[in-house]
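Tutorial, part two.
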Amino acid sequence: MRFPPFDDRGTLTTIELEALRSLHGAYMTARYEWQSAVAIWDRLYTALDLTELRAPERPPFQHYEEALHEIGNGAHDYERHAALITWRYAASAAVLGITVLERVARAKPPLTASTVEELCREPALGRLREALSVPAADFLPDRERSFRDERNEMAERWADLRDGVDTAIEIVVGIADDEGAAYPRTKEEAAGCLMTEHSPSWTDPVYQGILEPLLVVAEEVPYGISRVIKGR
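Running the prediction step on this input gives:
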């Protein structure tokens, strides 16, 4: 998906539209950087695995292997960095988009500039989970001649992502326990955490398995807003 044109903005305000469009550009750019970094990291470590298969005994000179390790470590760090930036903007886009979608669907007053600016910041994990609980699929107008139950499919995607975010909250608590950290001690405290501050480099990525689904939700929300405005 790409960002819809919004030829008919309806009740969507300029600041809401521009914030959504800017966040979309941010997470799409970060997404491509992340995916490129993943491909580079995989390629380097595949090459390293191949060297070990070809030379099971340690050769006298290890410069090639050392180069692969050094570049691979940098690629790994960049992959984590790009992934967390992607998460930050995609999560913000999802929460802002869902808030605007609900506002438009329920004919609520436009968001204030300060509210839009606040929603553009990375949401806490619990805030994202809360946004994903909004019954957004119910807001979508019926499509004629549709052979798919798109509302049910959308609701299932959101529910799966919501469960994934809940699992991420549990992982944050587990990381803190393993490290002997004083915070967060409970799921409630972890729900107030930011992914970008609680996915340390020495652990498996907390965003693993939920970043791609988050991107799907972030991309589909503007189209939901457009459909509600157009009524089709």
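The radius of gyration is 21 Å. In part three we will examine how such features are distributed along the chain.
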